[in-house]
Design a protein that fits this description.
Residues 103-199 form the Cytidyltransferase-like domain. By secondary structure, the chain is α/β, with parallel strands linked by helices. The chain has helices at residues 9-12, 17-25, 31-36, 55-60, 68-81, 113-123, 138-143, 152-160, 178-183, 203-214, 229-237, and strands at residues 100-106, 129-135, 167-169, 188-192, 218-221, 263-265, 279-281, 292-293, 299-300. It folds into two domains: 9-38, no CATH class; 48-237, HUPs (Rossmann fold), CATH 3.40.50.
Length: 302
């Protein structure tokens, strides 16, 4: 039986870093393998651990309950229906035997459950997938009259922290072309079913998707329905908001005057408790009084 060294003063001051690491790991695994376990890099789809969806999620949405086998069977069937099939590559390997580079792009403004579940399907579409996600820059969105309410850097960070994503491409083009596909070594582009017939979808972006179809480089994901109206409106149908300084790039017009309304407390009736008085909204639109500031710059009565 191998004796373990106690963590005393001599071991802390020891220059044998590997020996000190063995105290934690018992030496049966390398540091690299331990770090690799923290992510999904190089992991076979069926081996990726994820918490199961709640019962309410299963009842509300359809896509969270899709198993790895169901996702891959759907992708394979869709490829076959297009008269294609799993491709043989130059090195002789097939799609089932190599790491497939799948690409998804979008604005991801107000990242929501539909985005996350699409990325999940894209990641699990083949046994081994390297998932790249392109996020449109603010200038690109503005150029195509689709300004984002969240800054580009925040949208990139939200997507980067999705568990299914392997790589972020912040300089994503609005319209895909062969040069971009070749430089990024993209095998397939994933997009939701019905995208090509969605009248609200940008026609310029559709031209890029049509190109990937002609190159046999598209795979479908099933759209997540049943989202709250507010979430859908924010991600798809929101009226563009002018850019402003700060985290959020604008304020909804319906809330512009919300802070200006004064509240007046109705006097209680003689036989009524003062705590039962109801607040009434004043019709006055005058600005509220500025808070007083003492000589030290501290607000008084705030």
């Amino acid at each position: 039986m191998t004796s373990r060294r106690s963590l005393d003063g001599s071991s802390v001051l020891s220059t044998d870093d590997l020996a000190d690491y063995d105290i934690i790991s018992d030496g049966h695994r390398s540091l690299e393998s331990s770090i690799a376990d923290l992510g999904n890099v190089g992991r076979i789809a069926t081996d990726i651990h994820e918490p199961p969806p709640t019962q309410s999620a299963r009842e509300t949405f359809f896509t969270p309950s899709l198993s790895v086998e169901e996702i891959q069977a759907f992708v394979k069937k869709s490829i076959a229906a297009a008269g294609l099939g799993y491709r043989e590559h130059e090195n002789g390997s097939a799609d089932e035997e190599r790491t497939i580079r799948v690409y998804v792009d979008g604005k991801f403004d107000g990242f929501n459950v539909a985005h996350a579940l699409q990325l999940r399907q894209a990641k699990l579409s083949f046994p081994l997938v390297h998932l790249m996600v392109g996020v449109y820059a603010d200038s690109v969105c503005d150029q195509h009259e689709s300004p984002a309410s969240m800054p580009h850097i925040e949208r990139c960070e939200l997507v980067r922290h999705c568990r299914w994503v392997d790589e972020i491409i912040p300089e994503a083009p609005w319209r895909l072309d062969e040069t971009f596909l070749k430089v990024r070594r993209i095998d397939y582009v994933a997009y939701d079913e019905g995208t090509s017939v969605d009248p609200s979808f940008d026609k310029e972006r559709l031209k890029g998707y049509d190109l990937t179809k002609s190159l046999r480089k598209t795979i479908p994901t099933r759209r997540t329905t049943g989202l709250a109206t507010a979430v859908v409106d924010r991600s798809r149908n929101q009226t563009p908001i002018p850019s402003r300084q700060g985290t959020m790039r604008g304020v909804p017009s319906s809330l512009k005057h919300e802070g200006r309304r004064k509240v007046v407390i109705q006097e209680a009736k003689p036989d009524q408790s003062p705590f039962m008085a109801e607040p009434l909204a004043s019709e006055s639109e005058s600005e509220p009084d500025e808070p007083k500031v003492d000589e030290f710059g501290t607000g008084v009565g705030v």
